[in-house]
Structure formats: C-alpha cells, structure tokens
Design goal:
Order of helices and strands: HHHHHHHHH
Largest sheet: none
Number of helices: 9
Distance between the termini: 33 Å
Oligomer: single chain
Shape: globular
Strand content: under 5%
Structural class: mainly alpha
Number of strands: 0
Radius of gyration: 20 Å
Length: about 230
C-alpha cells in the first residue's frame, strides 16, 4: 500500500523536526568547544546536583577532543540542513542544477562525518564503552558505504538505486538526532531502572540506528514505483 498524502506530511514533519534537533545539538556543542579551542581547556567546576554532574562529565569528554569533535559536528550541521532539501521533489524538479551541486556538498559532508565518527570511536573513550563503540563503528561504516553506493549509482545514471542508497545514508545520519531523546528517556528513568550512562548509552545508540535503518527500508519499499504491466501480443 502506497503511503497517503497525510502520512507523507507526517514523515516530512518528523524528518524536519529531527534535523532541527541535530542542528541544535551541534550548535550547543560548538558554543561549548569554540572557547576551548580559542583559550584552552579548563576543568569544569563542581555541579550543583548529581544529574547536572552527569551532563558535565559528558561535556567534559568532548572538551578533551575539541578539534576532532568540531570536525565531526560542523559538517554535521550542514548535513542536517541539506538533507531534507535533497529529498524535496519540488526543489529537485525546479532547481536541478542546485540539487546536483548541493548533493555533492552533502556527500562530502557525509564522508567527513563518517570518517571522523570512526576516528572518534577508536581515538576517544566511549561513554557507553564497547557497546556504544561497536554500534558507532558498524553504522558509521555502513553510512560511508551507503554514501559511496549512492554516488556510484548516480554517476551511472541509475536514479532509482541512487535514491534508495541516499535514503539509507540520510536515515543513519539522522539517527543521531533520535538517539538524543532516547538517551533523555534513559536519564529520566535511571532512578527506576538503576542504569548508568555507561550502561544505557550503548543501548540507546543501537535502538536509534536500528530504528532508523528499518524505517528507511520500509519507506523505500513503500514508495517503489508501480511495475509497468506487460501486455502480451499475439
């Protein structure tokens, strides 16, 4: 069954919302890291309560790797801005030249994001330990593979396959925005569950990435073009 107009609008609304979340997360991280790049690292002060202390520890981890983190999140912001525009059929139909050039920028940003994500996974301690690092390495590798496949298919003018692999790549990239509220739920319920960030960060990453990849596959299959009926001639 093909998705109706109402469901398509709902999906577009969700994509735009998640892109805005991703942009906001990156902007917040940048405001914290740029002063460190300019003036050097300073140890954070004591937090007022245990919950604030947990967030301070998270910020302090990235503060030890400001350049690598910025290399990851600055193109990430552009990736979130360009992503919804790349999939707009209206923009693609009316401004094809712009779509092609922004697509090249989109892929370039994605390559930097994926490579830097792998560098962060191997070069930085993961909050969620091996479980988080394994999720990041696996899906960052798939993300890079999907981008390269999408680029390879469009160079061969295989538009349908190009679209499918771009959807997969964008879905994995957008999962970073979904992981944030999932982590927020774990934080909010930590007193009941007894889970610490070290224990639930990896779980949140797996949930976010798998959820988005499944959603991408479902959307690809739901929006496949109808097969052209073949009439037999005598």
């Amino acid at each position: 069954m093909k998705p109706g107009m109402g469901f398509r609008r709902l999906m577009w609304g969700a994509v735009i919302f998640l892109a805005l979340v991703g942009i906001a997360v990156a902007a917040r991280r940048m405001t914290h890291l740029l002063p460190i790049v300019a003036g050097g690292y300073r140890a954070p002060g004591a937090a007022a309560n245990p919950r604030a202390a947990q967030f301070a520890v998270l910020d302090d981890l990235f503060a030890h790797y400001p350049i690598l983190t910025l290399v990851h999140i600055v193109p990430g912001m552009l990736f979130m801005v360009l992503g919804p525009l790349q999939f707009s059929s209206t923009i693609r139909a009316r401004h094809l030249r712009w779509h092609r050039w922004s697509g090249r920028v989109f892929v370039a940003c994605g390559l930097v994001i994926g490579i830097s994500a792998l560098a962060m996974s191997f070069g930085m301690p993961a909050i969620g330990g091996v479980n988080q690092a394994a999720a990041t390495i696996l899906f960052a590798t798939f993300f890079l593979f999907a981008l390269c496949k999408a680029f390879w298919h469009i160079r061969r003018r295989e538009v349908a396959l190009h679209r499918q692999w771009m959807i997969r790549a964008f879905a994995v990239g957008l999962a970073v925005a979904t992981i944030r509220p999932i982590i927020g739920v774990f934080f909010a319920t930590s007193r009941l569950s007894g889970l610490t960030p070290h224990e639930f960060f990896g779980i949140a990453f797996w949930i976010g990435f798998v959820l988005h990849l499944n959603a991408a596959e479902a959307w690809i299959h739901a929006t496949l073009p109808e097969p052209v009926p073949v009439t037999l001639q005598r």
